[in-house]
Amino acid sequence: PMLLRHWVLAQVVAAIPVVGWGLMYFLLTHRKLLVRVAWIPPVSLFTPLQTLWNFVTGDAAHWTVVMAAGLVVLLGLMLRTLWVRSDSVWLLWAWAVLPITIGWSFSFVVPSYVDRYFMPAVVPVALLIAEGINTLKERRRLTIALVLIAMMLVYSVRLFSDPQYAKEDWRSAAELIA
Predict the structure, then answer these.
(1) How far apart are CA 142 and CA 63, in angstroms?
(2) pLDDT, tens digit, for every residue of 112-170?
(3) Angle at the Cα of 162 from the Cα atoms of 159 and 165, rounded to 5 degrees
(4) Taking phi first (over 0 means left), then psi (-120 to 50 degrees means alpha), and beta for anything else, what does residue 85 get?
(5) pLDDT tens-digit profile of 13-34?
(6) What's the angle, vertex CA 161, arms to CA 52 and CA 41, rounded to 5?
(7) What whole-number distance in Å separates Cα of residue 89 and Cα of residue 12?
(8) Which of 3, 47, 49, 50 is the most exposed, having the fewest neighbouring CB atoms within 10 Å of its CB?
(9) Is the pTM of this model over 0.70?
């Protein structure tokens, strides 16, 4: 009887992800399809990379040479963590990649991919970049860290000062209507 109870418990634990997947599949295939929301752009193959760039700089309106070079450096730093051989690094990768990948893949059907929906993934991305910097030699570590800090500072100031990123004054519009 004890072996049977352990076996049943193991089967229940093993079935939990399968039942979850089946439930998610059922909900996605039997839901009322959303109408495309006009302000959400369709995704491309490079949308997750733009999200990564947005996590660091907040500016990925169009692809530039600086953005492409910066992404190569960021991805290089993040990929260096794969040789650390730590369970926490794999957990960080799962935490960073899974939500973005799932949202991105669903968005090919109904555009619903917006960077701000994935803000919790900023934490593992930042930790992976920091761990990647930590794997470098000391002189390179300091140089790359200073360049990243300067880049984030410049883009943060630009995000708040450039008229391109000005937000609509909804409060004044509501007062005018009222």
Answers:
(1) 27
(2) 888 888 888 989 998 998 888 888 888 888 888 888 888 888 877 777 777 766 667 77
(3) 65
(4) left
(5) 888 888 888 887 777 777 665 5
(6) 40
(7) 29
(8) 3
(9) no
